[in-house]
Amino acid sequence: MTQRAGFIALIGEPNAGKSTLLNRMVGAKVSIVTHKVQTTRARIRGVAIEGESQLVFVDTPGLFRPRRRLDRAMVAAAWGGAADADVIVLLIEAHRGITEGVERILESLDEVATGRKVALAINKIDRVKSEVLLGLTEKMNARFAFAETFMISAERGHGVEDLRKWLAGEVPEGPWLYPEDQIADLPMRMIAAEITREKLTLRLHQELPYQLTVETENWEERKDGSARIDQMIYVARDGHKGIILGKKGETIKAVSKAAREELEEFLGRKVHLFLQVKVRPGWLEEAERYSEMGLEFKDGNA
To answer: Which domains does the chain have, with CATH numbers?
Structure first.
């Protein structure tokens, strides 16, 4: 059989289920085996093998209407990921249908998708009735010439295998792009920072959506096989620091425990995790922070 390999961009609104689908496709929480320094946090690549095909998934930031510099950088990274891909998968939520955000994505797809196939994946199908799904499928396909439409539940795995098999036949012929045992190319420091950021988001809900970032400042391999990881949580205001610390430090302790446990499971060894919170009023306007996140810093309103 002929080997195939290619890049697949997963695009959609925030919370459409792109990361869940990526992890389901790869069969693990997206991880890393190389330690080379790259700044690709904005485009997490997960690698899956389907038959003789290697599928390299690009999990882009959610597409939304940009209001601030950070928003613009994230949206630019998302469309950049789509423009660089061999195949694009647009993920929408069944129960939300064609939202204003989906409308904007459809308007941009014609330009970005030139010369490449785009599949539609309708996610969270267990939340609606079949006639609603059929109506949504018809409306979406009337708006854009999708190569295929898939009904999936990324969380439960329904329909994901069909999508993966289709993608395996669509990526270009050619040698594999990564060693077989590698399932992502994101630096370990960034994966660790993302895990902590995820725990903060879960704990704080909507209180600080884009007002914080996490950076791994130090990673020390110890003689006993464990790792010491020091991370800094940057926030924009003093009030935010208090929210993250919580009453008597309860919030940051809970976040640290949850992040450490996941890191230990992920790495298969003991981890000593130390978190600090620093107020940097202008971090949303600092080029260095964007570089750390793998995003492009643009001057003014560019």
So the answer is: 4-170 (3.40.50.300), 188-292 (3.30.300.20)
